[in-house]
Amino acid sequence: xxxxKSGIExxxxxxPKDQPEAPIERCSFCDRRIDMTRVMVKGDTAAICDVCxxxxxxxxxxxxxxxxxxxxxxxxKPRHIFDKxxxxxxxxxxxxxxxxxxxxxxxxxxxxxxxxxxxxxxxSNILMIGPTGTGKTLIAQTLARFLEVPFAIAxxxxxxxxxxxxxxxxxxxxxxxxxxxxxLAQAEIGIIYIDEIDKVARRNESTxxxxxxxxxxxxxxxxxxxxxxxxxxxxxxxxxxxxQKLLPLNTKNILFxxxxxxxxxxxxxxxxxxxxxxxxxxxxQGRRKMGFxxxxxxxxxxxxxxxxxxxxxxxxLPIVTPLDxxxxxxxxxxxxxxxxxxxxxxxxxxxxxxxxxTFDDDALDAMVEHATKRDTGARxxxxxxxxxxxxxxxxxxxxxxxxxxxxxxxxxTENAEPKIVHTKPERKSA
Length: 430
Known about the structure:
By secondary structure, this protein is an alpha/beta fold.
């Protein structure tokens, strides 16, 4: 024992001030012990565990992502969005205008929230109604690519309620997270397209007593994520289990676009419009038979309700836009004009082999005629042109001394050989 009474002594008689400080054994943020963490980053007076580091990283990413998306001068104007859609989607001008405005307002809404505006704008999800092959999926894909946000697509017919055999509705969010490479912040401003939404319509207007896990049940399961909720997702997808680390994904700023053919809804609308057209002084429009697009352009929530969508889902899809069947002129433009037009793709492939590929105008008309008979819109064009080009593509790598291949009408209609233009032999100098 030392005779110095002025201070506390250590067992070895040294001054406590000279002793090294006790090592930091807990996270300064969450108070976790070092043995409960995988990594502990220590400073002179504080420490932070790997769990808090990951959480802080997501907060920073989310803030940066919102600022990147929310700057007013970086949000593309509706006309710019329309023009970009027109580079890939032929026709459907009314639908493209409505969607351009809806998308612009959606990202302005995120801006308002980021800038702490005092008015909260509700999210405007989109419902597209139109026959197959009219460009519903292409519109959604082009939007996501142009806006450079994560994009996921799901088929409503494969979805079931949580807890049943099949694909859980929340798995759609997992796909979006995977498309964002695990970046929660980017996923939370992405776009999800749900196709075949009309196939989950319930059987009748009355509330179902028995379980309809792939119909009305799916509609019920979609309500929360469409409106905005925080879903806890397994990072790798699949079913959740108690010991699994879950990631919280907020769907408040995710834009949902739903699409479907809604076969038969025109008859529902015709019945409603026809009732209004009864009487001697009624509008003649109610007594004549209108086309699908003309009718669907007048769709009301009550028509969707009669079709089988539940009222809550209809309320969460406020932007309803019809798409028209493509005319023969539009189908021909699909073959020629978009940036990814099928004729351009094949010309590029032939160009790699040093061969020029030409399509006669009559050949293009014949392709359109074949596609029209199939009644599946632009989707039929690919199968028609691939059938024509398949044999050529098989022989292409072995073609020699060929300058140009010309696809004629008979190549399409009679499976005849295309015109082949051989390269001219070089003249020998005298």
